[in-house]
Amino acid sequence: MCIVFIFQCNIFWMQRYDFILKQVATYILKNPIYSIVIVDIQNIIIIFAHNISVVIMCNIKYYIKETEAYFAKTLGEDVTLEPANKGLLEGLPISVSSNFSFYEGCLLRQSVLLAYIKDGDSVLPAQMKKLLDIIQRQTKLVVILITPCISSYNKVRLVAQKVNFVIPDKQMFLPSLLLDIKPDRKIGSDLKETIPHFAQCLLLYHLQISSIVGTSSYELSDKFGVSYATVNKSLRWLASKDLIKLEGVKTKTVQIELSNRELWYKALPMFVSPIEQLHYTDALLEGMMISGVNALASYTMLNEESRQCWAITKKELKNLNVVTDEQFGENEIQVWKYNPKMLSTEGVVDKLSLYLSLKDNEDERIQIELERLINEMPW
Fold it and tell me: Where are the domains positioned within the chain?
């Protein structure tokens, strides 16, 4: 009888050991004649509970370490996750907090609270969102669900409801931090063969304006007003091509061993024309960056053309109050892949971007002046 009772208690314990102990205590009070036997059983239950607790904690710590490693590999920064301060969780209903183990840390310069749950399917996605929303309102932190196991169907539902979640080494969906690393992709597989637009802009800035050596992704994000994700992907692309190195423990910084001349010629086969679209207009644009042949004329001995040419961004194109056409017009409007004003403040596009925009032009005069332009660069 005792063996059966212990077996049943073990099953109950796997679900909720505090409930078992309460039941045992009640049984002792009602049945003192069996107290000695029951105390032995309680001790067995407590020992069993302790062992299970140790196993569970070890598993949680393992997955938290896996999460730290996943952040490091994917985002290029070391993230330390610690058990959440108890004071932070005060005020949370037990019906909410009992579902998770909580860890806190700093991710992309944002304080975050990680809510770990072993089985992501144990709570329906709609209910999961409600629980996490309650935690977020109470703690005032970005709350991220961490789970090693969840069905594809429920992952889709979590994405649809914009729930922050991470499945270590598989998927990272953090809409609150503007991150979406697709499922089951190898690290680095999000890097395309073609150079990212901002990566090219970054190297041209380094070559012509100011060194980026020693800067971090955060600093570059602030400096250029672009997202951390864009900077991070650009730097990882450049590092994958051995154009730069990323060094550091917690925060990685840019290191470049090549001279500017060596860097230019190594990167040149990877660089692309900055021009994304061409439009034409009969109007004259005020305050726009001069590009094309007239820009080359401002740097060399080439004569200017009567046709005007400007480099602008997509946003500036939308805000133009002039008629444009994709085929006809006296003047040319180039829509660039990056903002030309990042690389020049003189009203004329920078020399290296200009070179890349004209290097395939078949006019011999232009080719001669482009060669002179590069040869006279103050590397």
Answer: 2-58, 80-181, 197-267, 275-375
For 229, half-sphere exposure in the C-beta direction (CA atoms, 13 angstrom radius) is 11
Closest CA to 238 of 222, 89, 225, 215: 215
Burial 209-240 (b: 16+ CB within 10 A, else e): eeebeebbbeebbeebebebbbbbbbbbbbbe
Domain 197-267 has CATH 2.60.40.10: no
Provide mean pLDDT across the span 72-81.
Answer: 84
pTM, 2 dp: 0.58
pLDDT tens-digit readout, 344-365 = 989 999 999 999 999 999 999 9
| C-alpha separations of 113 from 163, 164, 223, 351 in Å | 13, 11, 28, 47
Check if the beta carbon of residue 213 is closer than 8 Å to that of residue 202.
no
Confidence of residue 260 (pLDDT cuts 50, 70, 90): very high
